[in-house]
Amino acid sequence: MADAAGRIATLAEEVLGTPLPIRVRAWDHSETGPPGAPTLVIRRRRALRRLLWRPGELGLARGWVAGDLDVEGDLYEALDRLSGLLWERGPAGPPRSRLRTGIQALRDPALRTAARRLIALAGPGLPPTPPREEVRTSFGPVHSLRRDRKAISHHYDVGNDFYELVLGPSMVYSCAYWDGPDSTLEEAQRAKLDLVCRKLALKPGQRLLDVGCGWGSMVLHAAREYGVSAVGVTLSEEQAAYARKRVADHGLTDQVEIRVQDYREVPDGPYDAISSIGMAEHVGAVRYAEYTAILHGLLRPGGRLLNHQIARRPQPDEEAYHVDEFIDRYVFPDGELAPVGRTVTQLEAAGFEVRDVEAIREHYALTLRRWVANLERSWARGMRLTSPGRARVWRLYMAASALSFERNRIGVNQILAVRTPEGGASGLPLRARDWR
């Protein structure tokens, strides 16, 4: 089948209504497209069958994870160009897939010839089996304790050595806080942890609960630098084992406790402060009121909550929101994003007084680019530590997420809230952002 790349480019233009903005190289070594642009490499014809059977993001994702699709050249540039081609983005509301609309339009009589040519290029047969890295099974009601544990395990129990490679020595898996792009990742992560501690006004002898403690970096920093007694909870067995070893290595076993425990199961409030850093995205809309009420109940009057959470743009019809298929199937099963305004409203409904919201969207773009660079620098080792498919998942989702933060499609915010006593004394200084 000579010149498969040219045929694919022609079909894509017919379906999408515009020429492809990147080069294409097909399995027969044919190549076409704008000179100097990144190249989409279609290694196997079955990538087209994946798209025929699941048009849109999931078909593309399966091809990428399986290694049927690849990119040569600047991955960020390729994703940026393809994003503008494949998705229609208005001033409000979710993006609309051009690819899905185009494939469905092939049913029209005028485009049936193109459909037959695409089927001929894809080859005969049923759709290929999805890559093994894809989540295929539901485990009970959404955001039940059992299902949440399975979802967390899928994302976090992929090997601590792999996360060390990606995250670096800080082992912090959330947005860092940068003085500038020349700072190191470790400096920026330490600055983030210290910012959280200062916003919470931690003092020696206080009790801190860190919800979704990851590998223990927050509780270790708070115990070492601020003298608190800290409890970290996670649903990941691998994270907990790693965090406990770090606690022991630092001689802090009398000061820091790591539990494999859901936030709904914490029995021993009140705490003086609670940090929730990059965890609330897992809670889900159906559980968010419960989440805020539980954290409110775990705080003493006058205690502070720091909720650090990714946010999406609001939609005209919020009921139409759904998680994109790639993220749900391969990255964060059952994860959900909410607009920051909704999060503030739900915190207030639980009884919190929201005192500060700091948007740090650009900081996450810088963080993600450093994580991608870490993975790409040790790519062969990263594939050995997990699996080739899993490494490809992480590279794609982190690079695409960096672009989403840069383009203001998603953001991240630190919300400081207080369980203000009935008398109204919040305990914050008049100039709150001194964080003393």
Automatic annotation (TrEMBL):
Signal peptide: none annotated. It comes from the Bacteria. The keyword Signal does not apply. CDD domains: AdoMet_MTases (cd02440). InterPro entries: CFA/CMAS, CMAS, MeTfrase_dom, SAM-dependent_MTases_sf. GO terms for molecular function: methyltransferase activity. The keyword Secreted does not apply. This is Cyclopropane-fatty-acyl-phospholipid synthase. Belongs to the CFA/CMAS family. It comes from Streptomyces malaysiensis. Residues 162-403 form the Polyketide synthase-like methyltransferase domain.
